[in-house]
Amino acid sequence: MATTTKTTRKPNAAFMKPLTPSPTLAAIIGPEAVPRTEVTKKIWDYIKKHDLQDPKNRRNINADDKLRPLFGKEQVSMFELTKLVSNHLK
Fold first, then answer.
1. Residue 76 — φ and ψ, nearest 5°?
2. In degrees rounded to 5, what are phi and psi of residue 6?
3. What is the spatial distance between Cα 53 and Cα 20, in angstroms, rounded to a whole number?
4. In what helix (H) or strand (E) does residue 75 lie, and over which residues does it extend?
5. CB atoms < 10 A from the CB of 30, how many?
6. Collapsing DSSP states into helix, strand and coil, what is residue 76?
7. 16-86: CATH homologous superfamily?
């Protein structure tokens, strides 16, 4: 009978490291340094609160006055979101 050891998975330190948002991103999520995972969560909270998902294609996000400078265009797909946001984190 073989014994198996259960390994607990450690969170990736790079994702948990607090990052400082640019002034453009801080207008949406606040100025405090937060981990990358929390940044994504706060942006989605903002998108849902302001009903910015495209009604025809929910994978697209329509920019409002605060998101337009962050995105650089009127609409982005949810798959582009993390790439665009990472440019605004230090």
1. -135, 155
2. -90, 125
3. 26
4. strand 75-77
5. 11
6. strand
7. SWIB/MDM2 domain (1.10.245.10)
| Residue 9 CB-half CA count within 13 A | 2
- Single out the residue of 63, 51, 59, 52 nearest to residue 24, CA to CA: 63
What is the value of pTM for the model shown? 0.79
In the 8-state DSSP scheme, what is residue 4?
A: -
Q: Residue ranges of the domains in the chain?
A: 16-86
Bridge-based pairing state of the strands 75-77 and 60-62: antiparallel
pLDDT tens, position by position, 11-58:
667 668 899 999 999 999 999 999 998 999 999 999 999 999 999 999
Looking at mean pLDDT, say which of 58-62, 79-83, 86-90 comes out highest. 58-62
3-state secondary structure 30-70: CCCCECHHHHHHHHHHHHHHCCCECCCCCCEEECCCCHHHH
